[in-house]
Design a protein that fits this description.
Blueprint: H1 2-10, H2 12-34, H3 42-63, H4 69-89, H5 92-118, H6 120-126, H7 134-158, E1 163-166, E2 169-172, E3 175-178, H8 186-204, H9 208-240, H10 242-246, H11 248-271, H12 273-281
Antiparallel strand pairs: 1-2, 2-3
Protein name: Exosortase V
InterPro entries: EpsH-like (IPR013426), Exo/Archaeosortase_dom (IPR026392), Exosortase (IPR019127)
Membrane topology: Multi-pass membrane protein
Amino acid sequence: MQSLFRRLGSHWLLALGVAGLAVPTIIAVAREIWSTEDGSHGPIVLASGCWLLARQWPEMVQVAKAPALSRALAWMIPSLLVYLFGRMIGVLGVEVFGLMLSLYGLIFAFGGSASLRSLWFPLLYLAFLVPLPDTVVAILTQPMKLAISQAATSLLQAVGYPIANTGVTLQVGPYELLVAAACSGLNAIISLSAIGLFYVYLLHRSDWRYALLLLVFVLPCAIFANFIRVLILILLTYHAGDDAAQGFLHNLAGIFTFALALAAIFAIDKVLTPVRSRLALK
């Protein structure tokens, strides 16, 4: 442990440098990403991820073995170049990605590969802070938006509502609604994946096989929850008007359906308890 603290002392400038880079980036992320529905999970991930790092730090100290300075620099220099490139071109996703690589490199410089293995989950969990590029979001959300729009239209037509759709545009009575990216389920998938992983790791410390199994259920839960959300918003618009559906009730519907999906993940975890036990014995 003493050798590690001496190593920390010798790298204080590097640690301060990474911290200095993190401050403007986190401020930019908070202003541009966390204030939107797309990145609303960010503050929770950052706070809980830092808590996980602090919680597992003593465990990491026991196995840490600092590498040669040349190996640490071979990691840090490309990471910092990625960060600077993101700053120069003004792409926040690249900037955050470079910052995360720099954080990983900083931990590697302090404790080597063993420290990264010891902190594998907090570091993986913090990767949810990296925002997806807009082009990737558009590619991923378009088929989900189309599927949800068509399913909602078919269901409401079957029970007698005057509704039709053209792509992701819905006409219900005198109103026209657009199924946005936020209603596709991608944001819920990302948020539920992060919270689901945190839940499984913290409560069960399960191995990667069970975590992967639980993640398989995140996709249908998130898409179904957003399907319910779209149904709620359509019915609110038709019965209470567009102003009601786009105001406080719009946000409330999002919170309700996310809580519903999260409860479904917890329930699935309980149902899969025997599977988790069998995996733990292997």
